[in-house]
Amino acid sequence: MDINNKDFDRKLVYSLEKKYKKQLWSRFVKGIKEYDLIQEGDRIAVCISGGKDSMLLAVLMQKLCRYSDFPFEVEYIVMDPGYNEQNRRRIEENAEKLHIPIKIFESTIFDTVKGIEQNPCYLCARMRRGHLYSYAQSLGCNKIALGHHFDDVIETILMGMLYGAQVQTMMPRIHSSNFGAMQLIRPLYLVREEDIIAWARYNELEFIRCACRFTENAADDDMLSKRAVVKRLIADMKRDNPNVDINIFRSVENVNLQTIISYHDGDEFHSYRERF
After folding, report:
1. Other CB atoms within 10 A of residue 202 CB
2. Average pLDDT estimate for 53-71
3. Is residue 274 one of the residues assigned to a domain?
4. β-sheet bridge partners, residue 19
5. Helix (H), strand (E) at residue 255
6. For residue 69, which phi and psi values (nearest 5 degrees)?
7. What is the CATH number of the domain that holds 53?
8. How many domains does the chain have?
């Protein structure tokens, strides 16, 4: 398909303004308002990995910037940590097809972590985040926006409980601990992954998945990850209880400290024994 095809452009607009408006645009806007993610005068770096989530985020942010009630600015940044030629080209082609004016910068993260045996994915993610913050800051941005969605949030909640022995969630907005006043926001916080997939399929868009050298040649790397196990667990539970995903989400909104054995607020630890 020609990347300048007017038929594609019309279909894309229809998918956002009609077919998937409720599932994507409405939930996107609701999340931004509910969690106060964007303020007047912000300069936000939308971080694009090349996957479906970050590409949709870029499209929605571009539309929001155009029709917002207050002015803010957006940069669309892509870090190339060492993609192979095919993945790099796909990112560039999709960005052009979706009319996203990306800025690409290089890093050597893949080369740095390729010899690491313990937790290479954790190290890679931390390094990616640092590079994104740094580049966004050099562009005059005060926030970076990531493409994590509703399913990422509820999977993180369960992963923390089942594998980390803790109750925590993926927050919609956080302050950077190493980059001054920089903040991280997640505008797709209320958008469901199934709707992102449906949108991508409707527009016949093919995005890269995990482009890491550890997994790009694996037959089914997802089956090996803890997140995939939790994803399947949630899907199995939804067969009996269709609301199980929203219940998981709301569980961290309705924490009753009177029924919690212990908790900590930063470095401050509290126990139920304090009430006796």
Report:
1. 14
2. 96
3. no
4. none
5. none
6. -75, -15
7. 3.40.50.620
8. 1
Mean pLDDT of 18-33: 98
What is the Cα–Cα distance from 147 to 189, expressed in whole angstroms? 8
The alpha carbon of 189 is separated from its chain's Cα centroid by a whole number of angstroms, namely 8
Whether 239 is in a domain gets the answer: no
Secondary structure element (H or E) that encloses residue 94, with its range: helix 85-97
Per-residue pLDDT tens for 158-169? 999 999 999 999
- 262-265 and 268-271 beta bridge pairing: antiparallel
> Is 70 exceeded by the pLDDT of residue 219?
no
Give the pLDDT band (50/70/90) at residue 1. very low
Q: Which domain holds residue 20?
A: 6-221
- Residue 75 · residue 62 · CB < 8 Å: no
In a domain, 182, yes or no: yes
Residue whose tokens read 């972590």:
113
Instruction: Tell me whether residue 65 is in a domain.
Output: yes
Measured CA to CA in angstroms, residue 130 lies from 114, 134, 143, 248, 262 at distances of 18, 6, 13, 30, 32
Q: Which one is predicted more confidently, 4 or 140?
A: 140
User: Which of 67, 226, 236 is CA-nearest to residue 158?
Assistant: 226
